[in-house]
Design a protein that fits this description.
2 copies of one chain form a homodimer.
Chain A (H helix, E strand, L loop, with lengths): L4 H10 L4 E5 L4 H12 L4 E6 L1 H10 L8 E4 L3 H13 L5 E4 L4 H8 L13 E7 L7 E4 L9 H17 L6 E4 L11 H14 L7 E2 L5 H5 L1 H6 L13 E3 L3 H14 L3 E7 L5 E2 L7 H22 L1
Helix pairs in contact in A: 1-11, 2-11, 4-5, 6-11
């Protein structure tokens, strides 16, 4: 019953063919990922940017550009606005960062006319397939929202639910994490975790089961949960979503896993009209391809919900 | 050049024979660790607690009590005070928690007459041997100080230095961690990391090299540091000490490593007159034994410094 990225790729192929709009596409690492995504049948791409440079890089990485739409726009800001507009208008199903700095990329995402705003705050979700864990783990937010308020955390959970659903988890268990599993007024994070839990019980956060505060062992390790006698908890080592107290905790755990464990992972930005792929230069090739696959199933899920 | 717990155990054997005073020793898991520590030549033990119960448990776990000093004291508080006094007076080299709650155990550690106060705040350090990393990593503080101030962080570093030295790291590289590696006034953690770095440069934190803020990849992964072009940093993937922003970040990373990676680890409390072993019931047998070995080399180092 192991669930992993192979299942996500299999799901992509059940969906209608997806297309990613690439913002300032003249980036070698991004083009390699796009090429691989097309080769594996995950997604087609529309490449927006400097056509000459795109063709030059494509030649270097042995990428056949037949079948790719290329929109020539040498100005980076204009290229990002043209690319995001494709997603805005439904001509592309997801939007991906190329050779443009994050700040200007996000400006295009948030552009009032051609961007992907939904009125919700954006958040980041990273999906992990970890050896020894028989399901996908959804870590959030490890990269975008720095110090989430209680309200932010509700939005983060809501943003993550379609990602879970797209990956086949229809009623995810959400663990607001802390160093401890009991409420301690001296640790505000535990108080907020408790509030989220109660709000979920009251039906205010539908579509999931929230149980916190939880320490990481109780969230992911059923043996540890049993050992600690956590038999009254709604989550006993079987959490799907790991909700982090802040960006430092989230990012440090994310990087510990990436650098110490042989994992597969993919990340997207959500809270947007379509999934946004914002890979970093330190991400591996495989992570970039996985992120496109993840975005593709999430795009399908969003369409299904909207339609 | 791989450094690990085998080296620590080898070091213990070069030191003079060490003795651990066990507080309320009638605990099966603790006695098993004590038995193993003796069998491996790591440490002898003085068992303080209910003698009848100690003998009963020893029989169950096939532990020969010959050669152990047993001090009969059925009252838990009194037993903890008698046990800590042994360490206070130098009759034992380290102090270990048995079947007593953490709160009362710490009360004995902090007792003004027979305890182990040094005037410094206590902090926790966890030593990890991680596959793929060729040196020991010292994580602090993942369990004790909740929200360390700048001053606390200086004490945490100072408390950790003898632990590093005891493990053969004479000039440790200390990485104050954050989600990012640049100072951002909106992230106070990064500002404090920068202050610690400057204080170290000014000679105010001697005996180590501090460089922060650092993201975890730059702290532990030389390839990532190279890839990100961090060639001007004092730490380029070769940090020894990982200093966490707060207990949530520290504890979540600690548990991620313990539950996802095949590691060896041992933990102690420092800032005390002698090392204090405060293992938790969720620690494995091996972790408990490693913690005793770690405490033994740290006890030797402290004695050398005092003498």
């Amino acid at each position: 019953m192991k669930q992993g990225f192979d299942d996500i790729v299999a799901k992509v192929k059940e969906c209608g063919r997806k297309t990613v709009a690439v913002s300032v596409a003249q980036d070698s690492a991004v083009l390699e990922a796009v090429k691989e995504a097309k080769a594996r049948g995950i997604a087609d791409a529309i490449l927006v940017g400097d056509e000459g440079k795109i063709r030059e890089i494509a030649a270097q990485i042995d990428m056949d550009l037949t079948g790719y739409e290329i929109i020539h726009e040498p100005d980076m800001i204009q290229a990002s606005l043209k690319a995001v507009k494709l997603a805005h208008e439904g001509k592309a199903d997801m939007y991906m960062k190329g050779l443009i700095d994050t700040k200007n990329f996000l400006k295009s995402v948030l552009d009032k006319e051609v961007g992907l705003r939904t009125g919700k705050p954006l958040s980041h979700v990273c999906v992990f397939e970890i050896p020894g864990i028989d399901r996908l783990l959804f870590l959030t937010d490890v990269a975008f929202i720095t110090y989430p308020t209680l309200e932010d955390k509700i939005h983060i959970i809501e943003n993550t639910l379609p990602v879970c659903k797209a990956c086949g988890v229809s009623l995810p268990k959400v663990a607001p994490l802390a160093a401890v599993e009991v409420v301690n007024p001296k640790m505000p994070v535990t108080v907020e975790a408790d509030e989220l839990t109660k709000m979920c019980e009251e039906g205010k956060i539908p579509g999931c089961i929230v149980d916190g505060p939880l320490s990481l062992d109780l969230a992911i390790d059923a043996e540890a949960a049993k050992h600690k006698g956590a038999t009254d908890r709604k989550i006993q080592g079987d959490a799907d979503v790991l909700l982090f107290p802040d960006i430092h905790a989230g990012n440090l755990v994310y990087k510990a896993i990436v650098h110490m464990v042989k994992v597969k992972n993919g990340c997207i930005l959500t809270g947007t009209k379509v999934p946004v792929i914002l890979t970093s230069r330190s991400d591996t090739f495989e992570t970039k391809v996985n992120s496109i696959a993840l975005a593709a199933v999430v795009a399908e899920e969003m369409k299904r919900n909207a339609g």
